[in-house]
Amino acid sequence: MKRNFFVFVLIISTVAIAQSQKGGGLPFPDSGDVTLPLDEYNKLLELASKQTRKPETPPQNYSVQCAELKFRVENQSVLGSVQLEGEVFKKGVTKVPLTTGMTTFDARQDGKGVPLQQENGTQTAVLNGPADFSIELKVGLPLRIEAGRASFSLPAPSAGSVRLALEIPGEHTFVNVSPGLITSRGSENRKTTIEATLVPGQPATIWWATREAVTQVVPKAARFLSDVKTLISVSETELRVAALADITVVQGTPSEFEVDVPPGYEVTGVTGASLQSSDVHGNTVTLKVDAAAQRHQFLISMERPIVDSKGSAPFLSFKNAQRETGEVLVEGTGTMELTATEGSSLKRMDVKETSPYLRALAHYPPQAAFRFHRQPSEVPSLALAWTRFPDSSVLAAVVEDAVVTTMVTSEGKSLTEIKLTIKNQAQPFLKVALPAGASILSAEVGGEKVKPVQGSDGSRVPLLRPGFRPTGSYEVSFVFMHSGAPFAKKGGSELSLPGMDVPISLLHWEVFLPERYQVKDFGGDVIAAGLLPAPFREGGVMSGQGGPVRAGIGGGIGAGTGAGTFVLAGGRLEAKLPGQVGGVVVDPSGAAVPGAQVTVTNTERGVTRNAVSDAEGHWVVSNFPAGHGKIQVDANGFKTLVQQMNYDSARPAEYLNTLNLGTVSETIEVNAQAVPMNGRDYDRLQQFGGLEKNTRKQAANAASTNVLNLQRRMAGVLPVAIDVPRTGTSFQFARALVLDEETKVTFSYKSR
């Protein structure tokens, strides 16, 4: 080995001497000296002049990054764990504060015990660093229980983030945390769980409602009465039950009630003002309530599928009730024949006698009603059987009211206007079967003109027009002319209305005859309007759109204002109840005045009622005492109207309020004349002979607004030339329930 090393040194020396002899390289410097470029030398001087940097030290010796708190409430304590994660920056031993205000049972890191010290009430861990740490503490806190409330104070550790998971006995318990933010709530297995984020370093107060008392006392035995009102609905696929339970506690403070649910039924909902939570276990529903309340009300809904056309009605029963009573109401959806057979303590009753709260739950007409008082040895039973029928088709259109006005000339020609208030779902045309010699002159839908259509099987009037799709009632009208036969000096005549393929609830027909003829012996398939029952007279349409019309006792419609008349505004007569005062506000032309301020005052008692007239001029006030009073009506652009009245609350009346043009500062005071609402004067007409006895009164009646409007339309508006009678006598007739058939009236006449 020494020989090899000597040979290597010799070779190197020989090579170096050979290179120096060539003269191509720089000479080697002497020992101890170094040759450097000037730039490199300056850089070395600059580096030598800089001071050496000392290593940086952290601003603090440790850091607690996050804290995870998990607690559960057990008896009178709050137990759980605190998981702290962080880092020690300082080399060597460092004291790290962990928790304050908690009782610590154990402290561990990586499964090994951690030494703790207590300094000023703070648990401190002694840790080596620099290193990360993760410490788990087993801790406990005291629980404060007050009347109706439980709470505890939780000191949040000083960490970057603090998260809490808390488990409390009882389902759906409402827990409050302050300060802090609850991020989730859950309830299962009779326990409530919350998750929250706390403010680091600040104590959080956590509380919830509880039924535990401060001092434990021996509770009294609970005694209560139950009254269950049950609605049973038989639908196409399900048997639904809605039970309105009323519980009255007579002794003790029960905190929960148990309800037996019939087999096969699914509970779909439980609500109640005092209800805190509800649990369903098998066929039992547990209702947890506020024990301080002495009365509880619950609405329990359940249902089961229908597999056949019969079944037994279910009855809910509260366990340990001292007395159980109730009512049962049965309804069916759709078209069906439903039979209910009662048994045991169940007794049938009138549907009208059932509780109004129970009837309010029903969506369809009730079929049967029962009541029961459950005895200890008896169980009420109700057997249901039903037969379902297919639903019939719905009418496409129906006429609520028909107002017909006919003018007859001395030449025997007749001009008739028919106004229909119609509800239409989908019918496009009205088929009109005109009598021979008649033709339609014009037609309107919703106030705009439309063109009638002539078909092979009769004329048709459009019921709709482009862009017009009403959702409620609207008006369709048409005018037709009939050639008729000229009048002689005396004889008989017949007028007829066409059949229409839409059902008409009530038809009112006014016939205006020339004044030169005296008529009698009316006949046909109509009756005098005065013979209609009171509800039809009051609900019927008796006027046109021109303003209020007054129907006299003679059966015709005139313009008289004497006693014993009906005031009809906007086309309808409003019936009043005892203690009500109403009226209609119109202008001098008879048009309705909406938005008028009406003040009704009883001057004897100082009672005042206020109202505002609607779009049709109507107004009404209630609970007005009898006695002397006044009505004051104010409207923009009109003089103030003050009407004196003597009101009888047992005989309600309407008043006609006619305003004159002027300013509000001007006042007109008159005596108000009540218009009776019962129409007793019509009862004098018992048969058509009554119409003959009142012929002289009818002859004195002028034409109604409908006739006047038709006369104006004839003057250059309708495409026909006809001698319009300016004076004459109006007669009014009526017919109910008309469908696809003619309506006729006959009479005899003679020239005056």
Question: Which descriptors would you attach to this protein?
Answer:
752 residues, nine-stranded mixed sheet, mainly beta, 7 helices, 52% strand
Q: What's this entry about, in short?
A:
The chain has 752 residues and is mainly beta. Helices cover 9% and strands 52% of the residues.
Radius of gyration: 49 Å
Shape: elongated
Structural class: mainly beta
User: How many E-type strands?
Assistant: 54
Biggest sheet details: 9 strands, mixed
End-to-end span in angstroms?
Answer: 170 Å
What's the total helix number? 7
Can you describe what's shown?
With 752 residues, the protein is mostly beta strands. Helix content is 9%, strand content 52%. It contains 7 helices and 54 strands. Strands 1, 2, 3, 4, 5, 6, 9, 11 and 12 form a 9-stranded mixed beta sheet that branches. The chain is elongated, with a radius of gyration of 49 Å.
